[in-house]
Amino acid sequence: MSTSAIKGSLPTILISPQDIAQIVSKKGLKEVFEGVADYILKDYLRWNEFDKSARVASYLDNGVLELMPIASKDQYSFKYVNCHPDNPKSGLSTVLAFGALINNSTGLPGVISEFTLTTAIRTAAMSALTARFLARKNSKRMAIIGNGCQSEFQALAFHYLLGINELALFDIDKEASKKLAENLKDTSIQITICDSVEEAVKGADIITTVTAEYSKAHIIKASMIEKGMHINAVGGDSPGKTELEPSVLNMGKVYIEFEPQTRVEGELQNMPADFEVSLLSNVFASGNPARTSDEEITIFDSVGFAIEDFSAVRYMTDVAKELGLAQAISIAPNLDNPKDLFNYLKKH
What we know:
By secondary structure, this protein is an alpha/beta fold.
């Protein structure tokens, strides 16, 4: 149903996974990544305007359930998201998500949206946006460690937004690496499937870790790090789940999204409470690259923050309306008398 039908008293739209696929089909993934990254950057530049909090999480033996809220002066949004590494055994994605964008003046959800695809897109867009400020100029080669559902998005975001044209892949499941290579075969990216993490990261400008290993793993060791590398650590995003040998964090500056959350969930959980970090909001506000030399090592301890979801759902909403996508739904009863809720039951 066209959004032109959403002009009544209940202007709520539903953005489905099919709508996201249509947005990507009609706009192209490059433009979508650029659009989401632009929305994220603009929202980070008004960092102090947001009512921010760490996500609310329920940690399970086999995963985590999370609620990620944030509010600006005019809008409130939340995302529910999980991470269940065993889900593929049941035919489900490791990550599943949905969320909403709400009008502060009325409390009515203007948008209810899928967030499984949107999370993958916004995470990759945030990684590439951050690398614009942290990675050395003219970076061309990236290692991707962990080649599951997030990996294609990371690969293409870095290709489109940073010009990465060489990928070295490693996953403990070689079929996952073959899957990634197959999905990227129509691009100009040169791809090498490696037999070890050490082989994949050797000579890389950027290392992206996006594994689903639910442990305090030492996937990237200090002995693997070379001068000038940028480390995009994405997979360590909940207590007990990390990817870097702790000593790696002592090798360069560590940049984070929201400190109260990253201290608990990121690679920082392995470090002392007073370990020094730098906020990306300050880096973005400066408008300048953060690294001081081509030999400096930089680390993005990425856990994903709600402002990025806020940005992404606003982008998808704007494009869905532009393209006439999404379905009109009733999320609140349409009352003859706003003070007589019970009468709605009698009439229906």
